[in-house]
What we know:
Blueprint: E1 22-23, E2 50-59, E3 64-68, H1 70-76, E4 80-82, H2 84-89, E5 103-110, E6 116-123, E7 129-135, E8 139-144, E9 150-151
Antiparallel strand pairs: 1-5, 2-3, 2-5, 3-4, 5-6, 7-8, 8-9
Amino acid sequence: MCAPSTENxxxxxxxxxxxxxxxANGSQPSSQSISKRxxxxxVVDPDAEYFAGIIKSYNTRRGFGFLACEDTARRWGRxxxxxxxxxxxxxxxGEEDLxxxxxxxxxxxxxxxxxxxxxxxxxxxxxxxKVLAFxxxxxxxxxxxEAHFFWRP
Length: 153
């Protein structure tokens, strides 16, 4: 369900804070790190490992939540924290807010307390349909009711 995604989508966002934390690979996401109360999203390293999971809980009033993913739970022994700043950065203008049950793709940043935090969060569009064609090197075509055709080069 939540194997690391092969997508290395760059997230054009800024860092804030300087607490010396490390990411999932043991290195800093950039020259600066996220503070406990970041005011801007973290810049995600282009070769960061991405995971896919589900928003397990989300407090709309306070704007934070937790992501469930089997792979991250095995690695860190807990759900991944989704901050208000990262949840706001995950939605495009005009999109509805994130909510429980939404599927997301995310990278992980280990904060100064050693806990996993989601960064570079992107909502995934889940579709159900019939695979018309697929190639591991070129992607595939899916026919479904929600959209006529999806193709990924």
